[in-house]
Amino acid sequence: MYPIFATGLWASPAEFRYDLKPGETVTGEVTVKNIGDDEVKVTVEKKRLLMDSIHLVYSDKGIANWITIDGNTTFNLKPGESRKIRFTVKAPSRINYSDAMGALVIRGLPVTQRAAGGMQVTQGVELVIPIRVGLPGPIIESLKLLDHKVPSVLLSFIPGEFVYELRNDGTVQANMTGMIEIKGLTRHSLPIDGVVYPEDNYTLVERWTPGWADIGLYKVDTRIEYGRFQKAKSIETTDTLVVIPVWLIILIIVGAVIWILRRKGVEPPIRVKIEKRK
Fold first, then answer.
1. How far is CA 106 from CA 64, 180, 203, 210, 244, in A?
2. By three-state DSSP, how is residue 48 classified?
3. Quick check: 188 and 207 in contact, CB under 8 A?
4. Which one of 78, 137, 173, 261 is CB 3.0 to 4.6 Å from 99, fit for a cystine?
């Protein structure tokens, strides 16, 4: 597997994948190395990992309780020094879902703090090593759309957000693909991609910026297809939005100003007169 690294810290492998039976135990090992110039203090934590298009959240529930880290979870590494972190994953004898997403979260902080302009500056690094576990059990694919928000009005050249709140009520991961189709005077497509694990909420956010040619009423058709292997199920929504171009607003303002000035009898400061030469 490929290594993963951040400034000053390196770890390999970058992730783990296991297929376990209920009650089965498996062991793993991660090598952490200090590739920086300063001694660092390293801490290692086991977490359940919840990810979506805008969040990365850690939890101490679920698979976090299946993971045991051997030895010390806090230690120092000098420049060029490395250490092996061993861990054990024990699947529970009974579980109500078949896919789980955990992680080892490895953080490094310099032992010697540096001063900048009279202030202490601390710059740390964080590595996330995913641990994906699959267990046998009933395959129930169920992804629900809890809520969604589509802009009602957009101005040209100003981005708008399309937000979809999803929850996996099934027993296996929901691999998502799909498309947001924005159709009106012009047509645009926004691809959808993501993974939602059982018992997790997922916030999907896509952005679209209207251009100079976009104007008027648009229909927004969203289709999210999902499944563990074959994406046989789908979620669909339909919304409308209005795109108002900036150039139209400017024309309306200029026209309104000219109309007001003429109503008040104000003459333009410059007059152009064209005469035909005889």
1. 14, 37, 25, 41, 48
2. strand
3. no
4. 173
